[in-house]
Amino acid sequence: MKKIGKILMVIAIAAVFIGTFAYLFRRSQPKEIQYQELVPETGNISKSTVVTGKIQPRDEVNVKPQINGIVAELYKKAGETVKENEVIAKLKVIPDMSSLSSAQSRLRLSEMNLKQAQINFDREKALFDKELVSAEEFEKVSQALQQAREEYNVSQETLEIVRDGVSSSNKSGSTTLVRSTISGLILDIPVKVGNSVTMSNTFNDGTTIATVANMDDLIFDGNIDETEVGRLHVGLPVSITVGALQNVVLEAALEYISPKAIASGGTNLFEIKASVKVPDGVAIRSGYSANAEIVLQQVQDVVTVAESAIQWEGDSTFVYVKENDQWNKRPVETGLSDGMNIEIRSGLSSGETVRGPQIINTK
């Protein structure tokens, strides 16, 4: 029995050895190289670049007060539309004490002058009626009375404007009423009732009461690298995609290319702007982040093939074409490439079979 066991063990070891040898022999034999077969087609190829930026209104205006004061009332809020000259807020005036004192003093002086001019007029009129003074003398005092009255009225209006921000004779043009300078959408009202506001002057920009923009006239604003700006020109079509809007592509046209670069992170960027067409039913908000695809070059109705089929030797390009079950080398002239497909200008026709990348067999 022991002798039979030894014989079986030897047979098993021999079988394992022979099987291993046969497997390694098969693996060591060269396999037939297989390639993908590609068919050239007639189509279009375009080369484009993508620029990141924002959608914003072309005209965005900060509405500021014409006087210093306190916000007494707000008639509008962000998100509402407003017409040109429509009132947004009303202010309560905080008069400048020096200006107020000067206006009060001027009014008192003009009142005194008016009283004296009236006394002179009454005296001269009595004498004129008795023909004791000439008409010329009477006309002088009449003119002096008229000037005194005008000065009194102006002084009174000046005091009202300094004290109240509006005169009784011109309430419709009150500086206490803050009006929109354009028609559009109110993007922001950064003040609240009770806030102090100042008008713009040499020393400060003034307080913004509201920001108003025309949302019917939008532009895309972005920056493009200097390596690509040389291929741009005004009028190029632009496709805008907005991350906040799903499945919406906006048409635009390039209208501005900055003549001066902006240094950013060691690279030179040029600002570009494109006018955006917003279709009906699409709501765009100011400041949306967006990507603009600009077509730099484009060819249509040309023979195209996958770029992986092209072989390079120096400055020459060629492909392997399948003819009579054989791969024959053929020179071709290439053109525009989009990174995936390439234009074939000559040497190859659509419908032929060309050799692509090698098929890797992992088994």
CATH class descriptor name of the largest domain: Mainly Beta
* Strand numbers in spatial order across the main sheet: 2-11-14-13-12-15
Mean pLDDT: 84
The string of secondary-structure elements, in order, is HEEEEEEHHEEEEEHEEEEEEEEEE
C-alpha end-to-end distance: 44 Å
Overall structural domain count = 3
Identify low-pLDDT runs: none
Q: Over the alpha carbons, how many angstroms does the gyration radius reach? A: 43 Å
Shape: elongated
The CATH architecture of the largest domain can be named as Beta Barrel
Task: Please state the oligomeric state of the protein chains shown.
Answer: single chain
The number of distinct helices, counting runs of at least 4 residues, comes to 4
The helix content, as a percent range, equals: 25-40%
Number of strands: 21
The CATH homologous superfamily of the largest domain is termed RNA polymerase II/Efflux pump adaptor protein, barrel-sandwich hybrid domain
